[in-house]
Amino acid sequence: MPRAAFAPLPTPTPKVEDREVDTEFISEWNYDADGKPDAGRAIPMKVVPLPDTFVDYPPHPPYQYCTPASRNENARMIDNKQAPFLPFADDPMFPRDTYFKAFDEEAQWVIEYETVRRLHIEHRFSAALIDEIIRATPGLTPLRISNESGLLWAVSQRDLPLVIWGDGLPSSSKPQLPPHFAQDYGGSKDLFKQVNAGLSKFCPNLNCITHNCHVHVDSDWSLFTPPVGQVQPHLTSTQLLAAAQGPHPACSKECFRLIGEDDMEEDGPANVPLPDLAILDSLLKLIPDAIPCELAVVSKITCRNVFVYRREKIKDAAIISAGKQPRKGKQASRLNKKAKKYDYEIQHLCHVSTQDVALTPFASAFGASYTANGIAVVQKNTYFPDDAPPAAVGGKCTNVVLQRGTFKNIVVMKSKYGLGAFAGEDISVGDVVGEYVGELLDNSNETLGHRDVIQDHSKLNYCFGMGGVDADENGKGGEPDQTTVDAQWLGNPTRFLNDSKPNKPNCVADEVRVNGECRLLIRAVKPVKMGCELTLSYGDRYWKTGQEADKGGSGPASKSGGRRRRSRA
Fold it and tell me: Coiled coil where (predicted)?
């Protein structure tokens, strides 16, 4: 048995040849399974004296960095609702009350979740009973409304705060609800609906081609990509059985291929659990001509069950009748008239063209024709001004560097004013240094007071305006910025470019459109040698107070609280 405590360690004896050397020793012991040490051994050390000199390594001054990112993220939908982790939590001078007052959402959800948790875990209330009580009580949020809404879904998107409840125990010590509690919302077993639910958040923009891109798609948008329609079957039951007799072997001795159709009458849907049948029903809407052996694996039933259910669900007579109908002419015209119409936005290409373009959300598709599956198609003419550069009219796209992210090397180091961005390589005039990225803030309908609190406290401002028009020398003719790129918490080394005052900058910010998306490109206007600092002009408005900035004609409207932004000066 292992001992409760180790016995005193024996002192190892150095070897005879080591005793005659003026040296230091370290001792080493090994322990057996019972925790008993061996005799130990003395290992000689070679002592190397350090030079008696004092080297001063001053610490780096405090600085604030952010999550590195290669593209923008949309903060419009959630930025002003839910408070994130408290910034400067260890700073007693940070105005916490002022910061939290800027958020709309209160902590009612914490109380609601704790109530649900206690009803289920401590009092054994079922999910159905709890949800029935909640839906009958005004002002409370149902447990689950859809696959991405409801109280439990909202709780899963955030961190529960540490709360000391009336019984004196913290919330962190309590057992939590299981992850899939009350997840039987409407359509949760319908695979066909689930596929379309995920597809609705797929972004087809050429900059994204992914789900929930956080630039064009937000969680509360109902539609982005058109839903998948039910696929028309082409094989009758006899044809499907013949198609299955191919090179692939039978899945088992009971495979539907080895048994006659008349011998499978007992394999009907009456003997299949309803949840499994619901999955099979969805699969037949998506891939009706798939081999039953393959569908059986997903639906967790036998291939004989799949074959019989398909034969009853999809009648051979309907397949034969549909196969005889014409595929062109009047039939195509009738399909077009019944096609569901979606509103799409035309994506502007990088060259002049006249062609049929499939539209993407969210603008009027006036004058568009509709295909049989409901996709709007319109003839698009793209024109460029007379002074457009040759690359814009035809040939190489000027945005290739931005799309591929082949930027110049930037080194962040100490500069005259805090940290600065320095050229990590020689940069020529016209080279794309990088892209200024951060969180996208909509200036038209957002009040972002909490960001102003952080900026005032840290004395740092990483906001960059997009979509506005600068005023003239007399302060007239300007238009407010439509969007702000805030690199306070999300960005890349371009956020460290300092203002060039009193000198002229060696870089400028160009506002460009890439596949319909507005982005900020940092471009060199002077040759920059390796090791030299990269600079921008923030614009005169950046150095004014909030009220003075509002009078400048370009930049924040009154709703933005006079937020100062860098401009494309």
Answer: none
Are both 536 and 418 inside the same structural domain? yes
**Are both 415 and 543 inside the same structural domain?**
yes
- φ/ψ (deg, to 5) at 564: -85, 140
pLDDT tens, 23-56? 678 888 888 877 788 888 888 887 877 777 777 7
Are 412 and 551 in a shared domain?
A: yes
User: Is the distance from CB of 553 to CB of 438 less than 8 angstroms?
Assistant: no
Q: Which two tokens stand for residue 208?
A: 């994204």
- 415 burial via Cβ count (<10 Å: 0-12, 13-18, 19+): middle
Residue 36 falls within a domain, yes or no? no
Q: In angstroms, rounded to a whole number, what is the distance separating the alpha carbons of residues 537 and 530?
A: 20
Residue 297 shares a structural domain with residue 169? no
Q: pLDDT tens, 339-349?
A: 334 343 434 44
Residues 450 and 553 placed together within one structural domain of the fold = yes
| CA Rg value for the chain | 34
- Token code pair at residue 154: 């909202």
C-alpha distances out from residue 284 to 257, 288, 292, Å? 19, 4, 10
Provide the pLDDT confidence category of residue 334 given band limits of 50, 70 and 90.
very low
Is 159 domain-assigned?
yes
Measured CA to CA in angstroms, residue 122 lies from 114, 155, 170, 178 at distances of 11, 20, 16, 14
Residue 118 CB partners (closer than 8 Å, separation 6+): none
Residue found under tokens 């949840």 = 275
Residue 54 lies in a domain: no
Q: How many helices, marked H, and strands, marked E, lie in the chain?
A: 16, 20
Please calculate the CA angle 111-115-121 and round it to the nearest 5 degrees: 140
Query: Do 169 and 242 sit in the same domain of this protein?
Result: no
Q: Centre a 10 Å sphere on the Cβ of residue 530 and count the other Cβ atoms it contains.
A: 12
- Phi first, then psi: give them for residue 47, nearest 5 degrees: -90, 125
75 inside domain: no
Q: Is 560 exposed, middle or buried (0-12, 13-18, 19+ CB in 10 A)?
A: buried
Q: Are 567 and 541 in contact (CB under 8 A)?
A: yes
Query: Two tokens at 370?
Result: 């509709």
Name the domain count of the chain. 3
